[in-house]
Write a structure and sequence with these properties.
- The complex is a heterodimer of chains A (about 70) and B (about 260).
- With about 70 residues, chain A is an alpha+beta fold.
- Chain A is built from two helices and four strands.
- Chain A has a single domain, classed as 2-Layer Sandwich (Alpha-Beta Plaits).
- Chain B has a single domain, classed as Rossmann fold, CATH 3.40.50.
- Chain B has a seven-stranded mixed beta sheet, sandwiched between helices. A two-stranded antiparallel ribbon of chain B has the order 5-6.
- The chains are: A alpha+beta (about 70), B alpha/beta (about 260).
- Chains A and B meet through helix 1, helix 2 and strand 4 of A and helix 1, helix 2 and helix 9 of B.
Chain lengths: ~70, ~260
């Protein structure tokens, strides 16, 4: 099984939460930390749960998520 | 397959954008970039023309192609000039609903009537968002905005149907929830020889969402629940409204020039 890597550019995130809500496998969760614009960026909970649907890449309005795998 | 990082590197500039958190503007930018990547068109041959408003900021300055940021409502006349002057260019017009259907409504009708080979993407968030959220021709009846605090007394404009009736070759409606379909539709619009119009229903969490107690996530869910690909359904239809072959303006002009022996 290939290794799945979900890269999140935390400083591009505006904290809208669309990626967390629309991930079909609940791979992402909101972080407790804040980025430089005081937004709660998403964090990867379990990358191996990812089914590579790439919905987060398509739905992120700020191009902050990249999925490799 | 091109990765998201390559799409960002190749097509996007000046990020982070000034769009509000959860705004669909960035999603439209993503869809346009992916559609161009999938098509045969090189990004050097694209000119993106926009008017004034939030949606006009999607291509200019955030899309890494040649852009023209023009006066309010006049994106289609400027784009027509570009297309007639150099018909080898692929001209994209990205305009908001207030800009395209409100201020520049007559230009939209005559662009469709002329059937000039433009790709018009109307980003419809249902109000004038940039200026504070005033009522627009696309605001639904009874909807609260800044200037209609007790609900919009007027009715909204079915822009896609009007453009279809005005004579456009290709008319479609999608929402930002339907990203994959939207990418395929933009690609199809670029292939169409004639006026292509895509109405993209987009969430505005700041100006519209706050009045209705919704955020970007709720508005996307609303689009999911209240749209249908079935024309018989009571829900809002999403899909291709018409796709017909008609005589195109720029081709006809150049054919006449050739017949008359050049300029």
């Amino acid at each position: 099984m290939t290794k799945k890597i979900i890269k999140i550019d935390r400083d591009l995130c505006k904290g809208c939460g669309i990626c967390i809500e629309y991930c079909p496998k609940d791979v992402l969760v909101g972080s407790d930390d804040l980025n430089r614009y005081d937004n709660h960026f998403p964090e990867v909970l379990c990358a191996q749960r990812c089914i590579l649907c790439r919905r987060c890449e398509l739905y992120c309005p700020d191009f902050a998520i990249e999925v490799e795998g | 397959m091109i990765t998201a990082a390559e799409i960002k590197e190749k097509y996007v500039r000046n990020h982070p954008s000034p769009f509000c958190p959860g705004c669909g503007g960035g999603m439209v930018l993503n869809a346009m970039s992916r559609a161009v990547e999938r098509s045969d068109v090189e990004k050097e041959d694209i000119v993106a023309v926009s008017g004034i408003g939030c949606a006009a900021w999607i291509p200019s300055p955030h899309w890494r192609v040649d852009t023209l940021h023009t006066t309010h409502g006049r994106a289609i006349p400027f784009a027509s000039g570009v297309k007639i002057a150099n018909r080898d260019l692929e001209v994209m017009v990205v305009s908001g609903d207030g800009d395209c259907a409100g201020i520049g409504g007559n230009h939209l009708l005559h662009g469709a009537r002329n059937n000039i080979d433009l790709n018009v993407l109307m980003v419809n968030n249902g109000l004038y968002a940039m200026t504070g959220g005033q009522v627009a021709p696309t605001t639904e009846h009874g909807e609260r905005t800044l200037t209609t605090p007790h609900g919009n007394p007027a009715s909204s404009f079915e822009v896609a149907e009007v453009v279809k009736a005005a004579g456009a070759s290709h008319v479609a409606r999608w929402t930002t929830y339907h990203m994959k379909e939207l990418i395929a539709e933009v690609e199809k619009a670029m292939e169409t020889d004639g006026f292509s119009f895509i109405e993209i229903m987009t969430q505005c969490p700041t100006r519209k969402g706050k009045k209705q107690g919704m955020d970007g996530i709720d508005m996307l869910a609303w689009y999911k629940e209240n749209t249908s690909k079935d024309k018989e359904s009571d829900k809002m239809f999403v899909g291709t409204l018409c796709d017909v072959e008609k005589p195109e303006l720029v081709g006809s002009i150049y054919r006449q020039i050739d017949e008359l022996g050049g300029v």
